[in-house]
Amino acid sequence: MTTVATQIKLTPEHNARPGASVRSRLQDALPKIVLAPSFAITIVFVYGFILWTVYLSFTNSKTFPSYALTGPRAYQRLWRWTFESDPPSSWYTSITNMGIFGFLYIFICLALGLFLAILLDQKIRGEGMLRPIYLYPMALSFIVTGVAWKWFLDPGLGLEQTLHQWGWTSFHFDWIKNKDFVIYTVVIAGVWQASGFIMAMFLAGLRGIDGEIMKAAQIDGATTVQLYRRIVIPLLRPVFLSAFIVLAHLAIKSYDLVVALTSGGPGGSAWLPSNFMYEYTFKRNEMAVGSASAVIMLMTITAIIVPYLYSELRERPR
Amino acid sequence: MSVIATPTRQSTGGISARTVNRIVIYGLLALFALFYLMPLFVMLVTSFKTMDEIQNGNMLALPQAPTFEPWLKAWGETCVGLTCAGIKGYFWNSIKMVVPAVLISTLLGALNGYVLTKWRFRGHTLVFGLMLFACFIPFQSVLLPMATILGSLGRFGVTLRNATGFSFGLGNPTVNLVFVHVVYGLGFTTLFFRNYYEAFPTELVKAAQVDGASFFQIFRRIMLPNSMPIFVVTVIYQFTNIWNDFLFASAYAGTGDAMPMTVALNNVVNTSTGVVEYNVNMAAAMIAALPTLLVYVVAGRYFVRGLMAGAVKG
């Protein structure tokens, strides 16, 4: 990999004339100078700030940052709360919700996305019309999605009321007001928003599969189900991985949807760790605990993303 | 590659089995189309109904006497917190925040992508990797330090204004949000342009070099004219993301006149004083959704490509 930049640097003439040397050295350094501000910004405002947050999590900051280190007290509290299930601590609720939401959101989006992609790949007339319909929710903000679904799931106004009017009076659906079920409404709205996009990813993957392989399998007498289970789905493995990464980091970052859809749910019962962090840092004056929860969120994402990025960036030894 | 549809030899009942198959497939596809359209449909029809009709009618029914009143009220009269001047001001706040943030982050991303592919240096992968990881961090992990810094800058801005008469934008919530979105959008824009320029023939750049073109000349004359598609993708991606952001908006401009649209909408919907005007809420939500929906309708192809590029690295 010889780039132009290194070639220029190796040309000896540049050092010969002192006047030109400054200019040409500046020319050589120009690309780095152009990149430098962005890189510096990233180092300071991403990595520096992360360290700052980590530091704060080891202090006893309350309403205002305090910079005297007091040890891992915030983490000890979170650890204690992790098992405090009766009555559940806010942290216990948040991480349990994260587990439920994360698992269902990722699983349903993947399953539904793949299913729709396979259906759409059957030479469907009107595919050009259906695809955008499945995908448009991705263009909406979580706030708008939350407002729409809040209305739709409201027992007094939405689906329940409508079905009552149609004569199904025993129908009962009040999950959004029920502290044990409210997190599932977040799953519904979240799946509604992201599954179309996952469908598009799978569809792109399906379209990339070599038709010859399929024909060969069909000639060998494979049934449709066998074909998909044994050949197509294994070939889609890279798409599964990308989709999983996208969904996992969306799930951990989810914040707005809970706010808009449930306002946190009855008694904070719909909180995710992101909501916990926001509430503890900015509303409950427990800055150190809030920071510690942010660090835990970051570590979770890091554990998923870093191996992925590492393999992605290493694969190209050009 | 269609399999279920292809009639195979063993289906002796040929046509009919195939027809049933097709009906099931189309039926399922239509059902899911309904599922995706329902909330938008309900939102849309509700925004054109009177309160009376909402309370007594069916959520799925079309408005009996369509009225624009809720839209006008949402735009110009509804209460956001204690101010009752509609959401129009907040809509413009969002525009004022989105336009500069998108332009700056896209341009920087283009330059970064150009350097990282055509002017490589030792450690370019590490630099890119560090910027890329920034795309994925939960912003909660930088939220508080940024709030502290913006607070200090704001205080410095007051001092500056007292001394010189100008605050130079320091402490202005919109300026703050532009800055924040540029900083945390850089990773994505750099990723987009890097992957695009990666496939751009380096020979062209080298030839221009030999002809004595400078770093910026090559960028302006050779790279930029060939970057239209990726510019569209990046601008759309950034526009959607920044317009839809809620976390930064609520943390750094959560109160007062500088609120962006998403925060204002959340406040409108969750204002619990008086009768809840659902039609006005839905109209406000529609107004908040319109810009990104419009972009999606006009340039859906690029929108999807952007999402894909953000998800799968080429």
TrEMBL record, chain A:
Domain spans labelled ABC transmembrane type-1: 95-310
SUPFAM superfamilies: MetI-like
Keyword Transport part of the UniProt annotation: yes
Single Gene Ontology BP annotation: transmembrane transport
GO annotation, cellular component aspect: plasma membrane
Record protein name field: Carbohydrate ABC transporter membrane protein 1, CUT1 family
Similarity annotation: Belongs to the binding-protein-dependent transport system permease family.
Protein location: Cell membrane
Keyword terms of this UniProt record: Cell membrane, Membrane, Transmembrane, Transmembrane helix, Transport
Membrane-spanning residues: 33-55, 98-121, 133-152, 181-206, 227-252, 287-310
PROSITE patterns per record: ABC_TM1
Alphabetized InterPro entries for the sequence: ABC_transporter_permease, MetI-like, MetI-like_sf
UniProt superkingdom: Bacteria
Bilayer disposition of the protein: Multi-pass membrane protein
Origin organism lineage: Bacteria, Pseudomonadati, Pseudomonadota, Alphaproteobacteria, Hyphomicrobiales
Gene3D superfamilies (UniProt xref): MetI-like
PANTHER family on file: ABC TRANSPORTER PERMEASE PROTEIN (PTHR30193:SF42)
UniProtKB/TrEMBL annotation, chain B:
Residue ranges constituting the ABC transmembrane type-1 domain according to the UniProt record: 91-299
One Pfam family hit: BPD_transp_1
Keyword Transcription regulation listed: no
Gene3D superfamilies from the UniProt entry: MetI-like (1.10.3720.10)
SUPFAM superfamilies found in the cross-reference section: MetI-like
Tree of life domain: Bacteria
Membrane topology of this protein: Multi-pass membrane protein
Single GO biological process annotation from the record: transmembrane transport
GO cellular component, one term: plasma membrane
Stored PROSITE patterns: ABC_TM1
Entry's transmembrane regions: 23-45, 97-116, 128-154, 174-197, 218-239, 282-304
Subcellular location(s) per record: Cell membrane
Keywords associated with the record: Membrane, Transmembrane, Transmembrane helix, Transport
Entry similarity comment: Belongs to the binding-protein-dependent transport system permease family.
Protein's UniProt name: Carbohydrate ABC transporter membrane protein 2, CUT1 family
Organism: Mesorhizobium muleiense
